[in-house]
Write a structure and sequence with these properties.
- By secondary structure, the chain is of the alpha/beta class.
- The protein is built from 15 helices and 14 strands.
- The protein is globular and about 60 Å long.
- The two termini are 38 Å apart.
């Protein structure tokens, strides 16, 4: 099959998922014919993606989250206003996506939670089937446990997840642990997608905490804690473009520019990981048997959900701030989940090939599109199952 990827370019997770699935598909004789990746001002697609995807990469303008200064979290008002002002630009992106699809003529489109996935199907009524992959689709599952008093946020994130997958044939929901699928909601629960490099690493128990932050503005919290605990060694990865590749703050605190290979090697040798609750980072730590402290970005409901789900899955502990004292207190009680997690993860290759190869010939799309359009019973049962 000729398969085209659509990838949300914000954050590292969706990019590494695309790389991993590409490796699985090529090993089975399929061809990844291109990757459409959304970009935005101030957001640079990491070099490791272009080097590892082994397919032509096509960029287009896409919405992204705008953060407050000094680690204040997501700026919701500015994010919404910016998106509304850029609607004409986003419509041009949809046109560019359509031209690329018509030029490549793939047998299947795989969307990694790309904002335009469902919109593209809605506007152009493409006859090319689409499979959507993301951890966020697990939040549509009736068994997913949400933070307390989050009804409005839950509605909004699930509305977004549905909009990214309008008229798609399937939603493959990445999960920390095995949960029964819900075909009636077009949800198939699958293991995480991790790059092959993670399986080649040999875990070591080092003497430092590894910190991964999605935005360098969060670094001030790390520095504040470090000044009170200078004896604890910290290695931090960030996206600050204004400093050198490796910035030594002092003898026990070092900041590193995001580098995939360097990060994974340091993850294998750390005592524990501190991360901003991104799904991919937590999965990599669980695979290597590393305890995790998950710190959701303020006002970022998706990361709050990831953190809670990670705690339920035995990944570690969660905190509202980078107070690493919480992690120090937690470490003696941590139970290693790596054996169970690896078994779940290694079942994934066969599952992904089965789900994707079911679309060979493209005959499934018409039936699924019709089901989205015409089956009021299906829509009603979905709303009831989700408690809406």
């Amino acid at each position: 099959m000729k398969i085209l990827f659509m990838v949300q370019g914000e954050g590292r997770g969706h990019l590494t998922q695309a790389i991993s699935l590409g490796q699985i598909l090529r090993s089975a004789g399929h061809e990844v014919v291109g990757a459409l990746v959304g970009t935005s001002p101030g957001r640079q697609i990491p070099a490791f993606f272009n080097e590892s995807i082994h397919a032509p990469v096509f960029h287009f303008d896409a919405p992204n989250i705008i953060y407050k200064a000094q680690g204040g979290g997501m700026n919701l008002r500015r994010t919404l206003c910016t998106h509304l002002a850029n609607i004409p630009k986003y419509l041009r992106s949809l046109q560019r996506i359509h031209r690329t699809v018509r030029q490549i003529r793939p047998d299947l489109i795989v969307s990694f939670y790309d904002t335009y996935g469902g919109l593209y199907n809605l506007m152009y009524r493409s006859e090319i089937p689409m499979v959507c992959i993301a951890h966020q689709y697990l939040l549509l599952h009736p068994r997913f446990v949400f933070p307390e008093q989050s009804r409005v946020s839950r509605f909004l994130i699930n509305l977004n997840s549905k909009s990214t997958s309008w008229f798609a044939g399937k939603r493959l929901a990445l999960s920390f642990r095995e949960i029964p699928s819900r075909p009636d909601l077009k949800i198939t629960v699958v293991p995480p997608l991790l790059r092959r490099e993670i399986g080649r690493l040999v875990p070591r128990k080092g003497d430092y905490f590894l910190v991964y932050m999605t935005h360098h503005s969060l670094s001030q919290q790390i520095i504040s804690w470090h000044q009170q605990h200078p004896d604890v060694r910290l290695h931090c990865f960030w996206d600050n473009p204004n400093v050198s590749e490796e910035f030594e703050y002092d003898k026990t605190l070092t900041f590193h520019r995001i580098n995939s290979e360097k990060y994974l090697n340091m993850l294998a040798g750390c005592l524990a990981l501190v991360t901003t609750a991104g799904f991919e980072s937590v999965c990599e730590a669980m695979y290597l048997g590393k305890p995790v402290m998950m710190v959701p970005v303020p006002n970022h409901f998706e990361q709050e959900c990831n953190a809670l789900d990670g705690v339920i899955s035995g990944a570690g502990v969660t905190s509202k701030s980078f107070d690493l004292s919480i992690l120090l207190d937690y470490l003696p009680t941590h139970i290693d989940q790596s054996v169970k997690f690896r078994a779940w993860y290694h079942s994934g290759k066969a599952m992904f090939l089965k789900e994707i190869e079911a679309f060979a010939g493209g005959s499934t799309h018409t039936a699924d599109t019709g089901a989205f359009h015409n089956s009021r019973e299906t829509k009603s049962s979905e709303s009831k199952a989700l408690g809406r």
